[in-house]
Write a structure and sequence with these properties.
Two copies of one chain form a homodimer.
Chain A: H1 2-5, E1 6-8, E2 11-12, E3 15-18, H2 30-45, E4 53-56, H3 58-66, H4 75-90, E5 103-109, E6 119-123, H5 129-137, H6 140-159, H7 163-177, H8 187-205, H9 213-226, H10 231-240, E7 248-254, E8 265-270, E9 282-287, H11 291-296, E10 302-303, H12 306-312, H13 319-322, H14 324-341, E11 345-352, E12 355-363, H15 368-380, H16 386-392, H17 395-402, E13 405-406, E14 414-417, E15 419-422, E16 425-431, H18 434-442, E17 447-451, H19 459-464, E18 467-470, H20 478-486, E19 490-492, E20 498-500, E21 505-508, E22 511-514, E23 518-522, E24 527-530, E25 535-536, H21 542-554, E26 558-562, H22 566-574, E27 580-584, H23 586-589, H24 595-603, H25 607-632, E28 637-640, H26 654-664, H27 668-678, H28 690-695, H29 697-718, E29 723-728, H30 734-755, E30 760-767, H31 770-774, H32 776-779, E31 785-789, H33 790-798, H34 806-814, H35 831-845, E32 850-854, H36 861-870, E33 874-877, H37 882-900
Parallel strand pairs in A: 16-17, 17-18, 18-19, 26-27, 26-33, 27-28, 28-29, 29-30, 30-31, 31-32, 32-33
Antiparallel strand pairs in A: 1-2, 3-4, 4-7, 5-6, 5-7, 8-9, 8-11, 9-10, 11-12, 13-25, 14-24, 15-19, 16-23, 20-21, 21-22, 23-24
Helix pairs in contact in A: 5-6, 6-8, 6-9, 7-8, 15-16, 15-21, 16-21, 17-37, 21-37, 22-25, 24-25, 25-29, 26-27, 29-30, 36-37
Chain lengths: 901, 901
Amino acid sequence: MSQAKKASAGTPKWVYSFGAGASEGSAAMKDLLGGKGANLAEMANLDLPVPPGFTITTDVCAAYYKNSGGLPDELRPQVDAALQVVGEATDREFGNPEKPLLVSVRSGARASMPGMMDTVLNLGLNDETVEAVARQSGDKRFAYDSYRRFIQMYSDVVLGVGHHLFEDILENYRNLNGYSLDTDLSAGDWLEIIDAYKSCVEEELGEPFPQDIHAQLWGAIAAVFGSWETARAKTYRRLHAIPDDWGTAVSIQAMVFGNMGDTSATGVAFTRNPSTGAKELYGEFLLNAQGEDVVAGIRTPQSLTEAARLEAGDDKPSLEAVMPEVFAELSEVYDKLEARYHDMQDVEFTVEEGKLWMLQTRSGKRTVNAALKIAVDMVGEGVISKEEAVERIDPNQLDTLLHPTLDPQAERTIVAVGLPASPGAAVGEIVFNPDEAEKLVAQGKSVILVRIETSPEDIHGMHAAAGILTTRGGMTSHAAVVARGMGRPCVSGAGTVHIDYDAQIMSSGGETLKKGDVITVDGTTGQVLKGEVAMVQPELTGDFATLMGWADKLRRMKVRANADTPRDAAQAREFGAEGIGLCRTEHMFFDHERILAVREMILAESEEGRRAALDKILPMQRDDFAELFEIMGALPVTIRLLDPPLHEFLPQHDEEIAQVAQALGTSAGKLKYRVGELKEFNPMLGHRGCRLAITYPEITEMQARAIFEAAADVGARAGKPVAVEVMIPLIASREEFEFLKTRIVAVADAVQEEKAARLTYQIGTMIELPRACLRAHEIAREAEFFSFGTNDLTQTAYGLSRDDSASFLGAYTARGIFEVDPFVSIDRLGVGELMEIGVRRGRETRPDIKLGICGEHAGDPGSIDFCEQVGLDYVSCSPFRLPVARLAAAQAVLRRKQAKS
Amino acid sequence: MSQAKKASAGTPKWVYSFGAGASEGSAAMKDLLGGKGANLAEMANLDLPVPPGFTITTDVCAAYYKNSGGLPDELRPQVDAALQVVGEATDREFGNPEKPLLVSVRSGARASMPGMMDTVLNLGLNDETVEAVARQSGDKRFAYDSYRRFIQMYSDVVLGVGHHLFEDILENYRNLNGYSLDTDLSAGDWLEIIDAYKSCVEEELGEPFPQDIHAQLWGAIAAVFGSWETARAKTYRRLHAIPDDWGTAVSIQAMVFGNMGDTSATGVAFTRNPSTGAKELYGEFLLNAQGEDVVAGIRTPQSLTEAARLEAGDDKPSLEAVMPEVFAELSEVYDKLEARYHDMQDVEFTVEEGKLWMLQTRSGKRTVNAALKIAVDMVGEGVISKEEAVERIDPNQLDTLLHPTLDPQAERTIVAVGLPASPGAAVGEIVFNPDEAEKLVAQGKSVILVRIETSPEDIHGMHAAAGILTTRGGMTSHAAVVARGMGRPCVSGAGTVHIDYDAQIMSSGGETLKKGDVITVDGTTGQVLKGEVAMVQPELTGDFATLMGWADKLRRMKVRANADTPRDAAQAREFGAEGIGLCRTEHMFFDHERILAVREMILAESEEGRRAALDKILPMQRDDFAELFEIMGALPVTIRLLDPPLHEFLPQHDEEIAQVAQALGTSAGKLKYRVGELKEFNPMLGHRGCRLAITYPEITEMQARAIFEAAADVGARAGKPVAVEVMIPLIASREEFEFLKTRIVAVADAVQEEKAARLTYQIGTMIELPRACLRAHEIAREAEFFSFGTNDLTQTAYGLSRDDSASFLGAYTARGIFEVDPFVSIDRLGVGELMEIGVRRGRETRPDIKLGICGEHAGDPGSIDFCEQVGLDYVSCSPFRLPVARLAAAQAVLRRKQAKS
């Protein structure tokens, strides 16, 4: 091994062989060989049938970019030597006019980036070697078909000649000759196509298609390294948080052919069902085809098992029926792979003239339901531990699970039925273009992206869309795989749907829908429905509950919900909330019945006027709180005092101003003047939060009274005290806090005396300003808890308005200035340091201070991990993010444990 | 001394005697005895004629407030004992019906707060003792006059019966009897007035005026302590940064009478001229009057010296002429006091039947010119050191000196002439009410406060006003003293002016002016002028230059100016700028001739369109910079790249939009849409600063090119390189800085090659966001200098918009939450800590990084002191604040030195 590691003294080892006898790599070497290369080596180590090949390491990718696109000189002899070995193992030789070796050239990064980077197949073909292939295989048609595929793929990937040019040539040829399928073309037809393709390349580039197979090889290697930096690859990395400096490896492997007639086939398969998680052979294959044909979704593939075929009602035979020996061997391969990897595998295989070859294995993408079932099952099978099971689930994926599905009772107008490619249901406007999808979503619309098929160029639109519908492709088509990964509902291969991109319409079964029409897609059943169909809330049981139970036992932090209404609170308890961490009272002020009193309060010209209006609001607020306290029982409820600037409650348009003026018995002019007077240049930094309370303490006193009266009443009825936490927003200094705390305590004292009750309460604050973090030791002298308001803290630390940042955040991410939007995941270096300062100083003066976070970061796994790191006591997020938070909090504990060990 | 410190074991010493033999206090005991008490003791120690008395310490004030207004029991015996001593020294006794002792009860805090707190004179008078006074003095009229004064003053100060009630009674009486002056009233008349006064008190309070002189005394003591917390005292403390917990002492002293006929007098005097600083006896006196009469400005007083009388053209005799022996004695007292205090003294004296008594001495308030002359003269006289001279000048006062005076060539329409009470000139709208003055100024207006006379209740209005005009009172009247202290131009005692508060008009010499009319007051000549009169810039020479020279030698930090225009730059050099620390380029964009091109650039829909418009702006920007570079020579010039959001440059109103649309050849609708599109919710946190540059790097490239081309051209012409510093605003991360630095360096390289020039430049950044402070070590890897932008840093650290804070900052200061407005003086605890972090981390990675501050704090002495403390290299302020900054920077060095020693 130590010898293999170095090709010769002083020269790094750039190339690792596999498959021809012992492999030089293993599954553990993903960083160096990429996922694909490492797993090919591992499969060879497991004695699985892997076509021999070798992997050029990710170090070469780094060197390539450091060299501005040049490959190191030492690489060539290593590649030549490795090619020699492959040739010997296959009894062929690269470029040999009699027994030519053909190879595939594929990318493979540390993390799977399906379809994001380039691949070239059938490399080694030229006008001379193609004849040898024809002679050897005895199948001219196969040889010419392979050659024309190679010309098209190589020209597209390496030479930059658009694939549509070749598709047009083929389409024309078919039409001229009255062929409807590619299989109608004879060897002679393909020869003509090959000539036309070569002419096309020469016309486009001014030079002929390269016949030198070594030039082909090095062109392909460079193209694969180059594809690491394409826009779509960068986007994918950004979405999946894959560092730019990882780079890709390149695996070069002897070709095997699934398109050598009906004893050949190619397929994609999973060791378990990636939709349901069931432990069954699952997958698809195509007879007489190359791998690309399955993934591209050009032909609809056949089932692997008889059971699956019957369930799908498919009339084409299963692999189990057509090639029973191959099927049996594949089953064994599955078992070996799961035993080795302890996880569900996604494999690619090819059958060449009855012989099975394994081309790839990787951890398979799966729906969240499948992920849960597989994790729980594998614990049951004794394959993984509970901790591993908890680590296996991507918390963000749980979100999908919690979203509503279609109401089974609702009426449905079915427009079409396709494959249930990614579960869940979504409603939105039809849009045919991914750019437009992104634009409409930015405008706040919900859209369904409708495409004939999708390609990696479309992922930004798929990410933006609520759901995806394609008319071609199977369960493992690009659309299906990507949608499942993203948690987007998807129906694929809905063949009855006809799409006219130019006219921006889709039609199916006599129904024509145009862009902007609303449809519903049900990725669980494959149905496409007209209009908006009613949804039901998901029920969470079984594997979900089991796994959450394990997570709950592992996590240290409590989880609470941000809940303003009884409905939110009930939902929160259902999803496992251990309290309310943020009840925003402003929503209560907007209620239709009370907004008039609120406006009266704002427009009052004296404290007496304000108090009169507040007296009207008091009983309503008290009822709000009483309801929440009843639902939450003895769990803590954090109520934030009024936060937004008062002008947010006032009418803005002339008509509305006139109405309100009449209702309030004032003049429209006077009201308009007051509205204008309250306008602010920078409301985010204006007269809001505790500043409102300090200028108008009577508002705080009313809210405190409503809170404490409700707490006393509910506590008395329930016979146990309500755990109420009064939270003051936007504190920057101890003096502000002290001023308000005194008043709130006075109200509590008064209510306790009036009601002869004993209240259990704490008074604390949001920490959402940089100054509050710095002065935390002073504020903590008075405050009994801190809740980090990281939305505002991010806005102030960066001087960045979330509402206004859309106009330039695009440029920031495109230029690599933001790795991740700081409003999505906590900026650990800046905002995070402020939090750390706040935590440390807060505990300095009050060691037992309760520390939490509320706001959107509290539902983001990366941010939750940071909260665990700095030692917060709880996170509080929206009810639907609670399971995400519970799981992420458990994973954060496991990560700390691993970091320590 | 150690025995005197304690009255008896376990009881603190609350009372310190003076004047009757040895004093228990001294000038060093200001903290305990207040300024007045300590100086009375000191004068007694110097054997000056001080009426005997004693001082109740500031500790009692603290106890009084801790006790919620109760005085400690141990105090009474100590006061009684001290009173006994005073009685013995004066051969009188408190309350004795034959030889009654009368006392004054005065406040006196550590720092002088002239007129802010209460005083009671003639205490000890009642129906019985007044007769003894009449008998002893042989002057019934004097006795009854003193008694009625006492009733009025005591009722007002202690009992809360408004003084206007008494004034009305007196006014009525005079009218009924046809008297025009108080001196027309006989002893019998005063007796009737006394009865009427006593009835008035009984009517108002339901109980008679207190005849018990001990009750009187304790009431007065409590009232003086209570006056520490009046609104006006609090306001004064806030304006002068005097801590609330210092408290006041109370001095009780045997009365001497300046109103015992024409051999008696009372006066206020300065050991040097407080207007010019000339070493001459200066002051005013009134024959047959009590001290209050001088200060209140009711009668216009006479000069002390013949020289001053002649200069004023006054026909009333001087003290020098009337009482030569007293005058001679006073001159000696002056010399003793200056020899003791090493500073110009402000003294109060009374002559009782030919005998001089000193009632007070303190460091005298003076104009800035006087302050400079006195400081420089005293260095010349060998009395103080240069360091002490530098410490003596209040930097804020210099501001006055730098402001324009009336252009001697300008036409003047003189409305009236009064006393030149406080130098400088001011223009503004007439306003008669101090509240209204404050309100109008808050709205951005400039006002002249016009009053018959001013009182301590008016100081908020005086502070707000640009200038002050009174129709009564002398050079030492309340208005004059306060205006000089504040640096407000003031004309006092303009007797020809008649004010009608009800009608809101003033008339003089047939001219009637109403509220809102514009006038100019010239506090240097005493003239009141109609309309706005042209001003000229001050010339700074002589003492100013001398003192600034000393300061410049002492200070460590450089001073630079914020200058956007050649005019600013020239002004800045004149005021001693050592460079430009902030040249804001946005002002250049607003220029009438180029705003159209700017708007074209903003509205362009492509980079090409923007570049075309930028090409038009480039030569203009280049000229801007070239002019600045020429003026500044080899001094560094920091140019900040475009900072404000683009929408600030666009037209806002329909009419203007239509005009601009026509000029740009676009439709008003389209333009309006774009204007709307660019609007931001929180522009302060929006698409501005480096964010503009990152989205539109072509703007930065144009600006960089204009800067470097100008630098190359000017450098070539001058034969020495221009020291240019390119400053990137609003940086939050190293990545932003790096992205832009790369582009700026590329432009510099290109210009150097094109012009075959060698540029000397640095690229640095504003540090104005909390995150930038935290990431300073990273940013400093790339940035060669930091300039702290503390305006924005304060806004973001506090989450507080300066523009919007007016609506609640009032409540904040009123409630003691802000000690000082953080936009006026750096909030050391929050913003200051961020700066410290930025400084420390910046130097970690780049030890020689240049550190400065630009923005308004850089002209605030308190903030400059902080900048010295954290070790900045320079401060950059507005040109007119430069001398302030130079002096404050020197003082900061001295303060550090003292703190160390």
